[in-house]
Design brief:
By secondary structure, the chain is mainly α. About 70% of the residues lie in helices and about 0% in strands. α1 (about 1-40) crosses α2 (about 40-55).
Length: about 70
């Protein structure tokens, strides 16, 4: 019984480590979003980042080139 308890403790510690890492990532993302929302300049930067990165938008008369690796 002692061995099974120790194994369970080890598994729970590993799970805690994974959750702690996830928490750190979420906190970092939240801090960045808060920074964007505090200032108009940062908010504009955030909107441009979303538009370019996730929506593939570009400025008028701007050309985007995608470099494809040769096969």
């Amino acid at each position: 019984m002692l061995i099974s308890t120790q194994i369970e403790i080890r598994e729970k510690r590993n799970e805690l480590d994974v959750l702690s890492a996830s928490l750190t990532e979420v906190r970092t993302a939240n801090e960045q979003l808060e920074r964007y929302l505090r200032s108009e300049e940062y908010l504009a930067e955030y909107m441009e980042t979303i538009a370019r990165g996730k929506l593939s938008y570009a400025h008028p008369r701007e050309r985007i080139y995608y470099i494809m690796p040769s096969s």
